[in-house]
């Protein structure tokens, strides 16, 4: 078997994608390409976030080279001013504003400290924003602001994130665990995503577990659940408890370590992805030194993924293939990609009922 | 409206283009691409400038990797020697020089401290060289040697240079003047070019004006005339006088500041331009410190243009468009580009009489 | 005349090509592209060299990002293990190894301190390895480990190496000799290659000769023979003796300086070449300081070739031509390239008898 790498399959467009961390958006405009489109993000005087096509309709000057002034975003070339709806509200040297003097505006909202942008044609309903468990709740600490630029198509990212098996080898110095390598994975599919999970029983804690809590000489039981929420959210839920402890909801939440690790994948182009990450934990919430070490460890782990994604993107481009042989662990990744394909198909042919 | 960006429209070829500053041309050959063609410039033993196709006819070695020796330009690979007419005058190891052993020679002349090269097929008449007002005349000081490499098609440069309106916004820290932003521009077309000009009356001096002369608390009247001489010369003529002074020729020349700012645009490729600049002034002629500051300020201004030109080139390549909406200030730039188009058309179809 | 530059003519594949120096191959896998193919080289536990397609059949992860472990080369992504024959011998998480779980293995052997790889379909017979005169013999010293990466098609390299004439001009500071420039070259063709040679008589020693031996005020006679062994070996044999000395075999070997300079050209892509070099001499065998200077001088010489090859590759790509005029010295290079063309033709059409 050979599976072709088709980079022209495009993106699910009717979805909120993470575009930036809120603190990135100020009155200094920020250029960012999302789903192939050049977009400028800025904060208007009323503190609303603007997300416009990053191109003045006059001579295509990037609006991100301009500045927030005169009540909107002012082009740095000839001073035309645009509001957050993309309407031109001033043209120096003339009173009449022609109807073509507009730039496309994208719906944008802020939640969870992130700015979310909608590039599709469907209704941009804030009720469809992803939900982040634990965020802002008592007993939870969050590492925010995580961002990496990855040189790979987002499908390679999804394969990576739905695939518990790679952690043993790619991340052997951080989250990897040799003991896990032969433990099979269960897969469960829902309407809006799927889950691959397994209990790894009676194994030594990973290096990261040991840094998080003192398990002494004890082994641990470890539940890891890789959740994929269509089309762009990875949510890894990890519970680590002393080996043999009863697996009640209460114990899973309070008996050891509980971690919610989110990644929001925003396609930049056909061959690159914005990788936003957010990490929540219910332990060592106020330990700054621990948090710094944890952040560094996660950065290292995600950089290992980034290097692999970059290499695979290059190989897919060179060969025109995605893979040549399938193995047992591919089940969840293949299901996830099929779900994506169906969503894209439905967007293109809305008569294919949902 | 949408205007397509057509990079295949080519260049006016029957014209003298600035190729280098005279002091750049020595017995060390210089490689420079002009109007898409790789050219090597060098100074022959009789001090004439040679301009040859930068490619040995033998194995295409760039002649610019060779040296001036044996009475001409000697290829650095096998020692074939070429004179300034492109004829091979020596081949080591053989007596007979085959007729194919030639490289194309381009007419080249020196004037105004610049080397001018002709890449067309028409008659290279030195009478058709651009004229530079004030150059070498009593009472005038010149900043010479100005050069930048710009990553944009020369048409984007022309739009920029025929457009007084952008200075308010793009150059607000140097030559820009907020007071000017709503002053309309007059446009006059001649046989060999066109002029866009305006008086900006009773305004505060710009930062650069203040550095040039002490106007005290006085406002100024400022005439700025953007001249475009087909197909590649921009000549900006600026007169600044105390507000209200009579606008006689004498006062314009002696009552304040008079500046002639020349730019010679030489297309390198479809997407890049050699930007030679030469600045003449009739004030503070011997003030070295002032001149250094002025040169730095001009470099900064032209770098702002360069960054904008680079960005617009990128957007034109990405969208295939030049602009999507027209505004009032576009009149002169659009006229200039139409004149260029007609010149190119006439070169291709000489029967379209001039 | 104009000779087209045809980069699609491909390579002679049924041949041993130098792939790496033996000391480069350890248990840390090495990625190297050979004849357009991505290959990973590694040393197996039994110290055999493995040469595999550098791509895991699962998701195309480069195997060179993995490590030698578990009895073979283990993929760094999901831990699949491959032996030197390309067979998968382990897949974590499953017992059955599907028949598609293979990667291509290339024949590889070690000789002369080099690893040789065969990318063709014909029989990889070690008897067809190139032979290196003097290697490992009494009275000879070798500089090994020479490697450069050249940005040119290997045909440009062959033209360079079969062309004694260029040394006068391109290498005037090292091996070049102005006295040689008009001495004609003899060419002799054999079944497996050809030879271009000449005696340069009664000339001053080159700078490198002088560093090698004290010739006092004496001139020298110098035989230089440029041998090309199809399809990828250049062997330059240089004998330098005091001018007028009898040219017996014994004198050529013992009366002055004798040098065997080998280059093994391995196409990397259509536009780049691995340049392995090996230098043997029968003088100053134990003089470390001399050897260091000699190595530096050779590196400098080959870098001059590299710069020229890079420039010519660029010109060939820009013009689509190889050359526009032929001169006397082209005889051997043209013969060499024709022999290559015939070999490639025979590989494609085996019925064209050898």
TrEMBL record, chains A, B, C:
Q: One Pfam match, by short name?
A: Rieske
Q: What class of enzyme is it?
A: oxidoreductase
Keyword ATP-binding in annotation: no
Task: Report the leader peptide range.
Answer: none
PANTHER family, sorted: 3-KETOSTEROID-9-ALPHA-MONOOXYGENASE, OXYGENASE COMPONENT, IRON-SULFUR DOMAIN CONTAINING PROTEIN
- Which organism does this sequence originate in? Novosphingobium sediminicola
Keyword Iron among UniProt keywords: yes
Q: What EC number(s) does the entry state?
A: 1.14.13.82
Transmembrane ranges, per UniProt, are none
Q: Which GO terms describe its molecular function?
A: 2 iron, 2 sulfur cluster binding; metal ion binding; methyltransferase activity; vanillate monooxygenase activity
Q: What keywords appear on the UniProt entry?
A: 2Fe-2S, Iron, Iron-sulfur, Metal-binding, Methyltransferase, Monooxygenase, Oxidoreductase, Transferase
Which residues are in the Rieske domain? 16-117
Which BP terms in the Gene Ontology apply to this protein? Answer: methylation
* The protein's name in its UniProt record: Vanillate O-demethylase monooxygenase subunit
């Amino acid at each position: 078997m050979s599976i072709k790498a088709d980079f022209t399959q495009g993106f699910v467009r009717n979805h909120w994608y993470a575009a930036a961390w809120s603190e990135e958006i100020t009155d200094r405009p920020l250029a960012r390409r999302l789903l192939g489109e050049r977009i400028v993000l800025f904060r208007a005087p009323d503190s609303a976030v603007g997300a416009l096509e990053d191109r003045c309709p006059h001579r295509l000057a990037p609006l991100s080279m301009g500045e927030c002034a005169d009540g909107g975003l002012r082009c740095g070339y000839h001073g035309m001013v645009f509001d957050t709806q993309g309407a031109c509200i001033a043209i120096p040297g003339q009173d009449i504003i022609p109807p073509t003097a507009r730039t496309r505006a994208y719906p944008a909202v802020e939640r969870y400290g992130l700015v979310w942008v909608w590039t599709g044609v469907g209704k941009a309903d804030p009720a469809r924003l992803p939900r982040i468990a634990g965020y802002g709740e008592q007993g939870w600490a969050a590492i925010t602001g995580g961002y990496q630029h990855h040189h790979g198509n987002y499908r390679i990212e999804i394969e990576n994130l739905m695939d518990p098996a790679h952690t043993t080898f790619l991340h052997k110095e951080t989250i990897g665990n040799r003991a896990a390598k032969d433990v099979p994975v269960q897969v469960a599919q829902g309407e809006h995503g799927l889950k691959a999970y397994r209990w790894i029983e009676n194994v030594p804690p990973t290096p990261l577990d040991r840094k998080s809590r003192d398990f002494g000489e004890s082994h641990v039981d470890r539940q890891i659940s890789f959740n994929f929420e269509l089309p762009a959210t990875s949510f890894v839920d990890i519970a680590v408890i002393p080996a043999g402890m009863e697996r009640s909801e209460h114990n899973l939440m309070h008996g050891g370590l509980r971690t919610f690790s989110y990644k929001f994948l925003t396609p930049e182009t056909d061959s690159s992805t914005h990788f936003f990450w957010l990490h929540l934990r219910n332990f060592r919430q106020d330990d700054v030194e621990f948090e710094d070490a944890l952040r560094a460890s996660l950065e290292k782990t995600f950089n290992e993924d980034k290097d692999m994604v970059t290499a695979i993107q290059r190989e897919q481009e060179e060969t025109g293939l995605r893979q040549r042989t399938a193995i047992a662990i591919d089940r969840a990744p293949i299901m996830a990609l099929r779900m994506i394909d169906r969503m894209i198909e439905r967007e293109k042919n809305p008569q294919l009922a949902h």
